[in-house]
Amino acid sequence: MEFIKVKNYQEMSDQACNIMIDKINQIEQPVLGLATGSTPEGLYQNLIEKYNQGQVSFKHVTTFNLDEYVGLDREDVNSYYRYMKEKLFNHIDIAMERVHLPNGTAHDLEAECQHYEKQIQQAGKIDLQILGMGINGHIGFNEPGTSFHSSTHIVDLAPSTREANSRFFPSIDDVPTQALTMGIETIMESKEVLLLVSGKQKAEAIARLAEGEISEDFPASILRNHPNVTVIVDEGAMAKL
Ligand code: F6R
């Protein structure tokens, strides 16, 4: 696991953007794993800027998002599908038929999880997976206690995660209680992982990631066993290292 230490959120987003553009430009049919949340917003803004400047094209890119809420329609203001369209896809030349998010309104959610996993395998696995990390070490929506051997599955969201995400909803009662997420094993099968961590609220989590034990109690810790992980971390998040 390689740590790149940067000053602030902007620098983290700039470095992540450069890594991602290099990857897209190196591979003929790149497959990217994408995250939502606050952390990658700056990265997505940068990608749009670079696209507008003609430095990157997404024409041959396939994407798989980590997760989606259960019960929210694709076009719901809080769905991750809508987030991705507004923050990235609407502004670049990606082919929407190559964009994938789990369908949280599927009639048979178990079948949807299996189908999603199959689509990732058929695409030839993820070349570069972008990750953020929750304060409890969750990656995707894999909360503490999730099996390291999990594939895409349905999860009950931890109270701390619902609370953290309630900032986007009218009230905490409106935050869905379940989500579909790539599993830990799905994430670990990515060829390369780029984890972005910013802000002092994540300082404890970064210290645990760097120095704690590898345990299902802290899902991100498994990344230490992955052969190709880069963590871009800013000064705030490094405060307890
Ligand atoms: C979202 C996701 C989550 C977030 C995590 C951090 O797709 O996978 O694991 O990365 O909850 O969220 P932010 O970036 O809002 O701090």
UniProtKB/TrEMBL annotation:
Its EC number is 3.5.99.6. It is an enzyme of class 3 (hydrolase). The keyword Hydrolase applies. Pathway: Amino-sugar metabolism; N-acetylneuraminate degradation; D-fructose 6-phosphate from N-acetylneuraminate: step 5/5. Pfam families: Glucosamine_iso. GO terms for molecular function: glucosamine-6-phosphate deaminase activity. It catalyses: alpha-D-glucosamine 6-phosphate + H2O = beta-D-fructose 6-phosphate + NH4(+). Residues 11-226 form the Glucosamine/galactosamine-6-phosphate isomerase domain. InterPro entries: Glc/Gal-6P_isomerase, Glucosamine6P_isomerase, Glucosamine6P_isomerase_CS, NagB/RpiA_transferase-like. Gene3D superfamilies: 3.40.50.1360. The active site is at D67, N136, H138, E143. PROSITE patterns: GLC_GALNAC_ISOMERASE. Keywords: Carbohydrate metabolism, Hydrolase. Belongs to the glucosamine/galactosamine-6-phosphate isomerase family. NagB subfamily. Catalyzes the reversible isomerization-deamination of glucosamine 6-phosphate (GlcN6P) to form fructose 6-phosphate (Fru6P) and ammonium ion. This is Glucosamine-6-phosphate deaminase. The lineage of its organism: Bacteria, Bacillati, Bacillota, Bacilli, Bacillales. The gene is nagB.
